[in-house]
Amino acid sequence: MAIQESGEMYLETILILSQKNSQVRSIDVVDYMGFSKPSVSRAVGLLKAGQYISVDEDGFITLTDIGREIAEKIYERHTVLTEFLAALGVSEETATADACKIEHDISDESFNAIKKLLLKLK
């Protein structure tokens, strides 16, 4: 089952939050993303149904293996693209915003070429 861009954003957020805190709940996602509780609740339900996350009886969210794989891929793209745009002289704020837009649509081939170039620049 293919995951939509919004689902990727939620998985990336859950990954980021889990790196900061050992436990992640829906309210943490609400606070981080600035979305409404019903929107996050619906997304969590869809991600759970798609087996990208699991939610225990206390409401704690954990990424499944496939959910973690997608989240890490998107997070790496976000990080590398932000760094690449900043290296081109783009302001940090704009680089971050643009990376967020690009990370979901860029091909693996183009991303890997950018990543390779960025490593050469370092």
Name the features:
122 residues, mainly alpha, Arc Repressor Mutant, subunit A, Diphtheria Toxin Repressor, domain 2, 2 domains
How helical, in percent, are the residues? 55-70%
Ranges where pLDDT stays below 50 over 5 or more residues in a row are none
- The secondary-structure class comes to mainly alpha
CATH class of the largest domain: Mainly Alpha
Q: Radius of gyration, rounded?
A: 15 Å
Q: What is the assigned CATH homologous superfamily of the largest domain? A: Winged helix-like DNA-binding domain superfamily/Winged helix DNA-binding domain
Number of helices: 6
Task: Describe this structure in a few short sentences.
The protein is mainly alpha-helical. The protein is built from 6 helices and 3 strands.
Describe the structure.
The protein has 122 residues and is mainly α. It has 2 domains: 5-66, Winged helix-like DNA-binding domain superfamily/Winged helix DNA-binding domain (Arc Repressor Mutant, subunit A); 70-121, Diphtheria Toxin Repressor, domain 2, CATH 1.10.60.10. It is built from 6 helices and 3 strands; from the N terminus they run αβααββααα. It has helices spanning 5-20, 26-33, 37-49, 65-87, 92-102, 108-121, and strands spanning 24-25, 53-55, 60-63. The protein has a 3-stranded antiparallel β-sheet with strand order 1-3-2. Strand 2 and strand 3 form a beta hairpin. Helix 1 crosses helix 2 (26-33), helix 1 (5-20) crosses helix 3 and helix 2 packs across helix 3. The protein starts with a helix and ends with a helix. The model has no long low-confidence stretch (mean pLDDT 94).
